Here is the input.
Amino acid sequence: MPALSRADTSLFGRWWWTIDRLTLLALGVLIGFGYVMMLAASPAVAERIGEARDALILKQVVFLALAGLIITLASLLSPRGVRRLALLGGIIALALTALTLFKGVEIKGARRWIALPGMSLQPSEFLKPCFAVIAAWLIAEARRRPRLPGMLIATALYAVIALLLKSQPDIGMLTVITAVFLAQLYLGGLNLFVFALCLAGTGGAGVAAYVFFPHVQSRIARFLDPGKGDHYQITTALEAFGNGGLFGRGPGEGRIKDLLPDAHADFVFAVAGEEFGFVVCLALLGIFAFIVVRGLLRLIAENDLFVILAAAGLIISFGLQAFVNMASSLHLIPTKGMTLPFVSYGGSSVLAVALGMGMLLALTRRRHHGDAP
Here is the structure.
């Protein structure tokens, strides 16, 4: 098969020579590791919940394959196409997130999911990448056209999303979206005094969440005081890391997956630590860090404010989600049910993260004069 020439002006040729191929490769490695971890962690969980041993594996194989397709297709878009996709996806995700309050499936006291054949959809997962792009466009347009109240519209949209997530409730998701939005406001040139007020308001909201949401209060109390509450999950996860040592006990030899109900999801990092050891966990951490740092470095020479804000928002969302999952498993922060991108089981999360990373690759492609804005 002949090598692909730089002179190839086909759609694929232009895509291949303008895409960030190293980030694309890193994402492919994460998806591949996700397959490995499902083979390691999900059979025991499937048996425990009364399903066939390979039921969760087969579902996740489909989700990860779709994730690869979504990354590829979304990365073909122009910045204008990314904006349009985010607007359409954001409207649908917002409507479905509101629908969960009335028709949603309640799990552990929260209504975040809509039942579909073969899976449960969590629409709020898709709000993260779509809102990051929409907010970036509104903030950038406000800078370009001062008469347009872009920041005000973006803030109003954020308030609607915050109200919906608070009502579900999903404080973890709200925290990530808030962090992304604050970062975009700062990068967009918001007055420092106003930004400080936003930070103070966010801190006040955090205190209110602690006071009014018992599950938030319980998690923080258990994190600060080992003598309070049930520490079974985190204690078992820490033991798994200890059992794994440097090189792990070997694929399929771990025992945490037989003990924890969320071994395939929230605590999949602990399963990786026990079966593959510290070295593989460190390599996995390095891959996430590489994607985040590489994405930020690609923005240094970027002049389009929309691209800078949107890509930064997508990167922060991706990196923060990975940090929360791994830090929770290591008991560095209070536990929070958040998946490890592409590695944990979960259809909504995998597809939403794939959408965000596809948009990121599209926005950071090398563009030349005459390309679609």
